[in-house]
Fold this sequence. Notes:
By secondary structure, the chain is α+β, with helices and mostly antiparallel strands. It folds into 2 domains: 3-40 and 244-285, no CATH class; 44-240, Cyclophilin-like (Cyclophilin, Beta Barrel), CATH 2.40.100.10. Helices cover 18% and strands 24% of the residues. It has 5 helices and 16 strands. The strands form 3 sheets. It has an 8-stranded antiparallel β-sheet with strand order 4-5-12-11-13-3-2-14. Strands 6-10-9-8-7 form a 5-stranded antiparallel β-sheet, with no helix packed on it. A hairpin with a 4-residue loop joins strand 9 and strand 10 (150-153). Helix 1 runs parallel beside helix 5 (250-260) and helix 2 runs antiparallel to helix 5. The two termini are 32 Å apart.
Amino acid sequence: MNGWRIQLLAALLALACAGPQTTTQKLEQVLAHAKPDDWRAPDPQQTLYVDVNGGRVVIELAPAFAPQHVAAIRALAQRQFYDGQHVVRVQENYVVQWGGGDLQAPALADEYTRTTAGLAFAPLPDGDVYAPEVGLVDGLPVARDPAAHAAWLAHCWSMVGVGRDMPPDNGNGAELYVVSGHAPRHLDRNLAVVGRVLSGMPLLTALPRGTEALGFYAADVAKPPIRVQLAADVPLAERVKLEVLRTDTATWQAYVAARRTRREPFFVTPTGRIELCNALPPVRTSPPNP
């Protein structure tokens, strides 16, 4: 038996022997036993800092799923296109959207799906309504159709997408949105999803709701300004130090098991299941160097 499976069995055995616990206690126990290399630091070349509402939102981009869109967004951030732009839409239980501006650039090619080849897919066991299979890839929620050899990022809470007009427009990266409410999975494969917010969601969800159709701000309303930078362009001492739990580890398997197996006294009828958008990997502040 390889070390990965031994570690998983040990973590599950520890959970089983620990007696009655809340789910929070079980999750804390799993993470307390995680090894340092069970965590990974986001690549600063693929990380955005969005300053808004008096704080900083950290977004990890997903070039493996939308390479053209991610490249365009990185280029726009580096040329400070978004600076001076504003949040333009806050729709209750749906999305927060910013940007727009006057970007003279054509819409990018469709990147709504990609091939399944080469993806380190960590499947979830309980099925899905919107896709034959779901799981995680590099900490991102992914749906896939093996028969069609297609995979795509899912519209879960905290996921980031590219706004567009009506088809065949695919957007050019000038407008971005974050899912801020219940997962609108019906949008999957209809817009380019380009990343996930790792920290700062409370800054976005605390913004005033727009009063116009679809949550857009009225023309006479002062809109929240934003500033966007690539993390790699920020001095090292000023970067946000975060780590994401890797989804190719026994710790991740134990974490999922703890979340889907809820036997603490509060639950009259434990479900014993977990859905994709309720299985996003935890993010922590990087521990100090020893």
